[in-house]
From TrEMBL:
InterPro entries: WD40/YVTN_repeat-like_dom_sf (IPR015943), WD40_PAC1 (IPR020472), WD40_repeat_CS (IPR019775), WD40_repeat_dom_sf (IPR036322), WD40_rpt (IPR001680). WD repeats lie at residues 88-129, 130-172, 173-214, 215-256, 277-318, 319-351. This is Dynein assembly factor with WDR repeat domains 1. SUPFAM superfamilies: WD40 repeat-like. The keyword RNA-binding does not apply. PANTHER family: DYNEIN ASSEMBLY FACTOR WITH WD REPEATS 1, WD40 REPEAT PROTEIN. GO terms for cellular component: transferase complex. It comes from Sphaeramia orbicularis (orbiculate cardinalfish). CDD domains: WD40. Keywords: Repeat, WD repeat. Pfam families: WD40.
């Protein structure tokens, strides 16, 4: 194994190692979730060197400088107001999605006008117009933390892979039988996952452009998907009211999570890959008993999110309270807080 370079990850704090093994470029993460202003950088470097053979004495000072930068960033105060700075006439038709690269220096916009555009954040200058799709560009993403590639998914049933610097199209991934509505890069930026209205998800090789696997098992549209932080598993949420956990290497379905009674709108892993939160458009049912002892089943207007154990596939908790569809749900990086956002004009914080 040969160490190539370090990549700094501010949120959550950590260092990504890029290395070469057997002629292939690979990455691994050193998570520093307990980093604080009190952390001794020399002691932390010693701990990292003891557990990570790629980091030798010659790299110790470089690692220390990265830790100091992480500490400085963590100590910055973020209690500030956001002020409007500029408006961009981005597209001739409505926008579908926006996304930043890791540093925030660039962002991308997708649109009903069949294009994705790349922008310089500071100046608001358009850098590239990514043209080639024959229908709405609905799903977009950078391959963070690298930020040198963009994936776009379209209602034309294809996904395209682009170069950020030149705007050149590397590959067009063809194989879905219906619109692509969600996509994601794996953390290593070697795979792109796409979810489609054809009830499947697919995995694509970033280097060759070839289809790696078709994840077949849902009976309705796949609306949301997410890799875990190691890139070993993928979770998909569907209009068939179920969530599936897949092994990325084999394409095998590990668990089907059953419990929601409506379409799944959003799925997310927590940072240590032990939990999944799912948002849905469902209603809960409650069982009560009449004075005569008869069981009565009543429907509640509450829409739910659910918390699942990844290893067992068991539902750990039902998060109730929203009065309309839950469109988004997310963990914080520590994994001890969940936020859900709903069509009822509220978000709920669960600790």
């Amino acid at each position: 194994m040969k160490l190539k370079r370090f990549l700094l990850r501010y949120y959550p704090p950590g260092i990504v190692i890029e290395y070469e093994k057997g002629g292939h470029l690979k990455t691994k993460s050193i998570d520093l979730l307990d980093l604080s202003s009190e952390t001794n950088p020399d002691e932390l470097v010693a701990e990292i060197m003891q557990s990570e053979p790629l980091i030798t004495e010659s790299r110790a000072d470089q690692v220390k400088q990265l830790i100091l930068r992480l500490k400085q960033k963590k100590g910055q105060q973020n209690h500030r107001r956001f002020c409007f700075t500029k408006e961009l006439k981005a597209h001739i038709l409505p926008l579908t999605n926006v996304a930043f690269n890791k540093s925030g220096s660039r962002f991308i916009t997708g649109s009903y006008d069949r294009t994705c555009r790349v922008w310089d954040t500071a100046s608001g200058t358009e850098l590239h117009t990514l043209e080639g799709h024959r229908n709405v560009v609905y799903a977009i993403a950078f391959n963070n933390p690298y930020g040198d590639k963009i994936a776009t998914g379209s209602f034309d049933k294809t996904c395209k892979l682009w170069c950020v610097e030149t705007g050149k199209c590397f590959h067009t991934f063809q194989g879905h039988m219906a619109e692509i509505v969600c996509l994601a890069f794996n953390p290593q930026s070697t795979l792109v996952a796409t979810g489609s209205m054809d009830a499947t998800a697919k995995l694509w090789n970033v280097e060759t452009g070839e289809e790696v696997a078709t994840l077949d098992g849902h009976t309705a549209e796949v609306l949301s998907l997410c890799f875990d932080t190691l890139g070993n598993q993928l979770v998909t949420g569907s209009f068939d009211h179920t969530v599936a956990i897949w092994d990325v290497a084999s394409g095998r379905r590990i668990h089907t999570l059953v419990g929601h009674s409506g379409e799944i709108s959003n799925v997310q892993f927590n940072w240590d890959c032990s939990l999944i939160v799912t948002g849905s458009m469902d209603k809960t049912c409650k069982v009560s008993f009449s004075p005569q002892g008869n069981r009565v089943l009543t429907a509640s207007s509450d829409k739910t999110a659910r918390l699942w154990d990844v290893q067992s596939g068991v539902c750990l908790q039902v998060l109730e309270g929203h009065r309309d569809e839950i469109f988004s749900c997310v963990f914080n990086y520590e994994g001890d807080t969940i936020i859900t956002g709903s069509k009822d004009n509220t978000c709920r914080i669960w600790s």
